[in-house]
Amino acid sequence: MDMWLKEGQISDAAMTYKIKETLVRKQTEYQDLAILDTYAFGRMLVLDGIVQTTIKDEFVYHEMISHIPLFTHPNPKKVLVVGGGDGGAIREILKHPSIEKAVLCEIDGSVIEECKKYLPEISSELNNPRCEIFVGDGIKYVHEHKNEFDVIIVDSTDPFGAAEGLFGGSFYKEIYECLTEDGIFIAQTETPFYLPEVVKKVFNDAKAVFPVTKLFMAGIPTYPGGYWSFTVGSKKYDPETVDLSNKIDFETKYYTKKLHKACFTLPKYIENLIK
Amino acid sequence: MDMWLKEGQISDAAMTYKIKETLVRKQTEYQDLAILDTYAFGRMLVLDGIVQTTIKDEFVYHEMISHIPLFTHPNPKKVLVVGGGDGGAIREILKHPSIEKAVLCEIDGSVIEECKKYLPEISSELNNPRCEIFVGDGIKYVHEHKNEFDVIIVDSTDPFGAAEGLFGGSFYKEIYECLTEDGIFIAQTETPFYLPEVVKKVFNDAKAVFPVTKLFMAGIPTYPGGYWSFTVGSKKYDPETVDLSNKIDFETKYYTKKLHKACFTLPKYIENLIK
Q1: What's the rounded Cα separation, in Å, for the pair A44 and A28?
Q2: Which of B57, B150, B155, B205 is labelled catalytic?
Q3: Strand A212-219 to strand A101-106: parallel, antiparallel, or no bridges (unpaired)?
Q4: Backbone angles phi, psi at A144, to 5 degrees
Q5: Could you say which residues bind S-methyl-5'-thioadenosine here (chains A, B) (predicted)?
Q6: Nearest by Cα to A199 from A226, A221, A167
Q7: Minimal CA–CA distance to B117: which of B143, B86, B88?
Q8: Portions of chain A given CATH number 3.40.50.150
């Protein structure tokens, strides 16, 4: 049987992946969840038909969403991940020895459960004693915790449906309150090529809340366009100019200290978008 | 009719594009040539089933393959484009007022002819008096011209089939001879994610010939992986450290002077590939 996944994120153009095996497919309380084994990217998590993460290219996303804010903050101890049920961000966060507690607040417990089972390379640190898992609404969690986290990572699905409330001004104000006085926020913020208006709105919403707001790019093959944006909002430290010389080194596949700075230099059309 | 192009470049994963209209489809002396009008990317040139350039994202490729070498050279007067029959590189090259002659050496005259007809936004400068068109073999042309060009741009299809001879050491030696004493060479050199061995080989082949060899990346949505490599070989000037402060400014959509430097800072896995 020649079985292919056709991804439905962008209209009139689609990535397709040849499937070896469907490892799990179920309707959870929140979404259509599948973990597929593919020929080109190995096992992948697919939510509502959209590829979230794959064994072969997850390192780009998880390294960049974690190490940029954690190396920008001088001494991050408490980190909150909103979403991120696959555990990839948690795995990267716990590489930083200063971290005392990393809270994962994922609305869909089934994502955690199935990723623990089928994506052990990504979910490997979800049982780490420094990781605390909370299954519930990220918006509610952030609202109920004030002045608590040094870094907040919004590792969500796209801003349509379930995750819509995780993008935009009112949530960013709550995040600001949830951060400590020198805290840093980061979110994945979509493709500037296909969804320029989303990138622009989200950036401006963050900019209205945070004294320092920067956007950077990373090359992620399984995300539409292959060139993905992340937005950083910071109360104090500038991720682009921070001194990284005294930071520890550990093995990475994408992140480097030099790239930490360079990734904020944007192509003209993206620069114009957030001007 | 719901008609889609499925691109065959990468096995087991494929980009697909919904087609509005097939403007031209023919077997030329060298390849299967099509110009399709698509919903997501507008008109696109497809050779042997592989998307070469599209109205919507061509600016990234054509700006980066042209302006990086042309702004690195202090006074480029004569440029050779090997391949590039769509005319996009010629259009960008002729934005540099120092250019006296830009030679396009394209093996397949049908590409030039059909792009003039159906992709006028890209081919617009092919009739410019500073552009000289030569329909013929690039390898032969380069062999027959010594010490002549300040910049040589290899704007070819992929290193399989017709364009295979345009990648690799023996051709790069000929290019070296064809360049003036401070000349610069650039080529599109594929995707480090899907084809790491190709990127590695091509880079090392160039490095064996040129005193300065550098690789940079750009985000191109319609190329596999969306994050594409270019290799620069230079006899004298380093594109990453060259002083750009006195260079003229003109309107671009991707290239900026700051990005000219930053694009050479590579993700770790690409850095490792060419170490």
Answers
A1: 17
A2: B155
A3: unpaired
A4: -90, -5
A5: 31, 106, 137-138
A6: A167
A7: B86
A8: 58-273
> Class assignment of domain B58-273?
alpha beta
Residues of B contacting chain A (CB within 8 angstroms): 6, 10-18, 38-41, 57, 59-60, 193-194, 217-221, 223-227, 252-256, 258-259, 261-263, 265-269, 271
- Please answer whether residues B165 and B205 qualify as being in contact, where contact means their C-beta atoms are separated by less than 8 angstroms: no
State the maximum Cα–Cα separation within chain A, in Å, rounded to a whole number: 56
B138 is in an annotated binding site: yes
- A155: annotated active-site residue: yes
Partner-chain residue, chosen from B10, B41, B255, that has the shortest CB–CB distance to A268 = B255
Cα gap A175→A227, rounded to integer Å: 26
Give the Å distances, CA to CA, from A151 to A21, A148, A215, A238: 37, 9, 16, 14
Q: Is B13–A40 a contact, with Cβ atoms under 8 angstroms apart?
A: yes
CATH 2.30.140.10 residue ranges of chain A are 3-54
Write out chain A's pLDDT in tens, 275 residues: 789 999 977 789 999 999 999 999 999 999 999 999 999 999 999 999 999 999 999 999 999 999 999 999 999 999 999 999 999 999 999 999 999 999 999 999 999 999 999 999 999 999 999 999 999 999 999 999 999 999 999 999 888 877 888 988 899 999 999 999 999 999 999 999 999 999 999 999 999 999 999 999 999 999 999 999 999 999 999 999 999 999 989 999 999 999 999 999 999 999 999 99
B219-228: string of b/e by CB count within 10 Å (b at 16+)? bbbbbbbbbb
For B139-178, b/e burial (b = at least 16 CB within 10 A) is bebbeebeebbbbbbbbbbbbeebbeebbeeebbebbbeb
Q: Pick the catalytic residue from A108, A155, A205, A249.
A: A155
- Supply the ipTM of this predicted assembly: 0.96
Say whether A105 sits in a helix, a strand or coil: strand
Nearest Cα residue in chain B from A256: B268
CA triple A219-A224-A225, angle to 5 deg: 60
Which of A39, A258, A274 is the best residue to mutate to test the B interface, defined by the most B CB atoms within 10 Å of its own CB? A258
Chain A: closest CA distance from residue B221 (Å): 4
Write the CATH number of the domain with boundaries B3-54. 2.30.140.10
Secondary structure (3-state) at A151: strand
